[in-house]
Request: fold
Amino acid sequence: MLYPQKLNRKKGDLLIKIFIGISIILAIILVLINHFVTPDVQWAGLANAGIIYIWITVIYAISRNSNIATHVLFQAIAISVLTFYIDYKTGFRGWSINISIPIIIMIANITMLILTIVSYKRYIRYAICQLVICLLSLLPLFFIYEHLVVNKTLSYIATGICFVNFLLTICLSAKEVKDAVSRNFHI
Amino acid sequence: MNDEIRKTLEWRKLDNSAKLFPISAGKKYSTVFRLSAVLNEQIQPEILEKAVEIALEKYKSFRVKMKNGFFWNYLEHNSKKPIIEEEKDYPCKYINPSTNNQYLFKVTYFESKVNIDIFHSLTDGNSGALFFKEIIYSYLEMAHPDDFKEELRTYRKVDYTIEDSYIKNFDKKAKNNNSSKKAYLLKGGKLKLGAISAIHEIIDLNALKEQAKNENCTITQYITAVLIYSIYQVNFANPKKRPIKICIPVNLKKYFASDTITNFFSYITVEAEMEKHQLDTFPKILEFVKKEFEKKLTQEEIKKTMSGNVKLGTNPFIKRIPLFLKKPIVRLSYLEIRKYTTMTFSNIGRIGIIGKYQKYIDNFFMLIAPESAEKIKCSACSYENKFTLTFTSILNNSYIEKTFLSFLEDKKIAVKIESNGVNM
Reply:
């Protein structure tokens, strides 16, 4: 016999599809409850944003095709978007851009800084994520420029940490950064 | 810098043909081919695992994973071990880069059979066969140490490069010779999503050679003609009068000097307009196929086709489109491009095995993945006196395969059938 008699199809994809289906049904139920029971307070959007965030995180985590730096970058973007959305839906008092986004950027930069120091010889794996995080770290400066920020201290600290992080990266791993750029941007 | 860290820094660009595969491939269009070896003994998984490791040491170009760049994908050194598993899925399935420790090939086994499924970005059928043979050699040496004492002591040297032979050999001025006519596409009910039927027609090579000699043609020409005849007999209710187009991959190493282990193939397309050319009998079809081969299988014509494809990959505008935009564009255009072929017939020829190892091997198979436009694909290889033609199909019938078989049997050519049991 040349082939197994029972050829399987992988069950993993099916399970994920079932759970995504359940999540969609749950999201619709939440919207309906919100609409009919408490129409004055739009909490369903917040709950559904949380569901979307969880799913994006789960799918990204099980892809197993990403290193720690891409997780840091991904989480920094996802949590920033989530907090901004929550702030916007709850009357936009500005706490997302005044406090949470600068703190998220600080944490992302400090994590990348530690990664650079601990494993700078393997830094090439993280270089592109590092550069993208540095670019994103300019967001607080943009908020200041646009006069969207009331308390500027955290924004300046976040940008300062990013600057230090970038300088240290260039000092320690300039060759790796150059190599990472050449392999990622070759045409 | 230690050796392992240095290796992680190694990377290489994809060759010109390989660039398009990761962009266009997916679950419904896997661009995976399989090579199988049937041994005369049960496979021992632990030995097979070691054999793959040894082969990877020699063929380092296979020890890679696919990475996304901003404009193109690229290959990077993979320091993990490939996962060897018992066969439990249909052949030639899409190799998800996040499985199998990100390797672009997958080795499986079942009873006495070893399979390797290879994503086409990595290499073509001929070079894939070299790597696969190395696995089989290493396996047999370890499984039978007493018989291969000398081979275990000496190092079997392999010579290859990873140059992009397309870039080296293409002609900037060559004009594209692609046909503008869409092909007749096979009709019929489909198998459930993901299922693939594999039918091996194991043909007596001497009898086939004799038959081809009598008809004054090559085996590939003869088989191509029988394929067109079978399609015509079974499936040719063609109100739009579209031609039956058989795409035949060509090993470019026969035409250009190259030692590359990466892709280096092109193709010719035999375009049979059944009514226009009055191809209603097999002798007429065979004569037509012979003329098509004579016209198209020349270095000049092959260079034109190859150069046309290279120009696409080196086009300054296309090169500068970001990968995330290239993917939908290429996938959409591939939906259209694939309608220009009725069936692919890939013959990688003889699998040459060193004499001492032959007694342990019964046969080799080659399989290529069918897809929604080319619902049946056909591939072949020969080993000793066996010429094995394999039909892989997503159709829920096997009319073409059976017609093909009856034709050969009518010509008194001995054929043995093996299959994965889906359609036969």
Summary: Chain B touches chain A at residues 1, 5, 8-9, 11, 13, 36, 38, 67, 69-72, 74, 76, 86-90, 97-99, 102, 110-111, 113, 194-195, 198, 200, 319-320, 418-422 (CB under 8 Å). Chain B has a mean pLDDT of 90.
